[in-house]
């Protein structure tokens, strides 16, 4: 699979790589692909980083490198490359979504929520994005982030878009109802989520929702640990 197409997308249209540099860039990319195929993660990253140094405004290179760094848990580096990517491609929803994942992993909930919001502006009604936003608004330990009404609205829309067929989204909707003090609705929705999770043989999710359900039945909302 080609890592990125050789197109010249730059912030300044007057900037262009010389023919010799294009040849070098192609070589770096091919070597990176070879390293990846061989299972050499360090070599893959090394060749990608060399490619980015040569062509720092090639968006495909930036997003591939950032995604790989995120997968490896190198969050600070991933965020840096993503911010460069978004300066080059400021309307790219994938960049904002990936940055949201990085920020969430870093514990920067409010900043992550802003990035999810940007994705939703660019590509409205993506159930997964609505679900992430709703979850953060419902269960964040940060009281300045929690917004139960928004959580219910977002999770309800995600559930509608998926015909109430996704147990993860129903889990979020139940948590949102609980955050809003609607514990009967929370318990009922959590029960739906448990049934669907079991049908999918997702015992881990079913067990997690069952724990949350026990709290809802006692009138207790679920909050993530700080």
Give an account of the 3D structure:
With 226 residues, this protein is mainly alpha-helical. Helix content is 70%, strand content 0%. The protein contains eleven helices and no strands. It has helices at 19-37, 41-54, 59-71, 75-88, 93-105, 109-122, 127-139, 148-161, 167-179, 183-199, 203-217. Helix 1 (19-37) packs antiparallel against helix 2 (41-54) and helix 10 (183-199) runs antiparallel to helix 11. It is elongated. The two termini are 41 Å apart. Residues 1-20 have low confidence and may be disordered.
Structure, briefly:
The chain has helices at residues 19-37, 41-54, 59-71, 75-88, 93-105, 109-122, 127-139, 148-161, 167-179, 183-199, 203-217. With 226 residues, the chain is mostly helical. Residues 1-20 have low confidence and may be disordered.
Structural class designation: mainly alpha
Query: What is the mean predicted local confidence, pLDDT?
Result: 87
Q: What percent strand? A: under 5%
Output the radius of gyration. 21 Å
Largest sheet: none
Features:
226 residues, disordered N terminus, mainly alpha, elongated, 0% strand, single chain
Structural topology:
Layout: H1 19-37, H2 41-54, H3 59-71, H4 75-88, H5 93-105, H6 109-122, H7 127-139, H8 148-161, H9 167-179, H10 183-199, H11 203-217
Helix pairs in contact: 1-2, 2-3, 3-4, 3-5, 4-5, 5-6, 6-7, 7-8, 7-9, 8-9, 9-10, 9-11, 10-11
């Amino acid at each position: 699979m080609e890592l990125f197409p050789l197109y010249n997308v730059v912030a300044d249209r007057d900037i262009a790589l010389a023919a010799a540099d294009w040849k070098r860039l192609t070589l770096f990319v091919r070597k990176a692909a070879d390293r990846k195929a061989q299972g050499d993660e360090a070599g893959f990253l090394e060749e990608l980083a060399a490619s980015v140094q040569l062509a720092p405004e090639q968006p495909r290179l930036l997003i591939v490198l950032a995604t790989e760094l995120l997968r490896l848990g190198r969050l600070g580096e991933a965020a840096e490359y993503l911010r460069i990517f978004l300066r080059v491609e400021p309307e790219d929803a994938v960049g904002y979504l990936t940055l949201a994942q990085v920020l969430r992993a870093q514990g920067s909930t409010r900043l992550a929520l802003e990035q999810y919001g940007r994705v939703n502006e660019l590509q409205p009604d993506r159930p997964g994005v609505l679900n992430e936003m709703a979850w953060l608004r419902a269960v964040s330990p940060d009281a300045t982030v929690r917004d139960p009404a928004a959580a219910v609205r977002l999770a309800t829309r995600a559930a509608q878009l998926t015909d109430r067929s996704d147990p993860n989204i129903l889990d979020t909707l139940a948590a949102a109802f609980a955050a809003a003090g609607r514990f009967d609705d929370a318990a009922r929705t959590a029960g739906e989520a448990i049934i669907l999770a079991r049908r999918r043989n997702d015992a881990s999710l079913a067990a997690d929702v069952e724990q949350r359900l026990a709290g809802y039945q006692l009138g207790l909302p679920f909050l993530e640990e700080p």
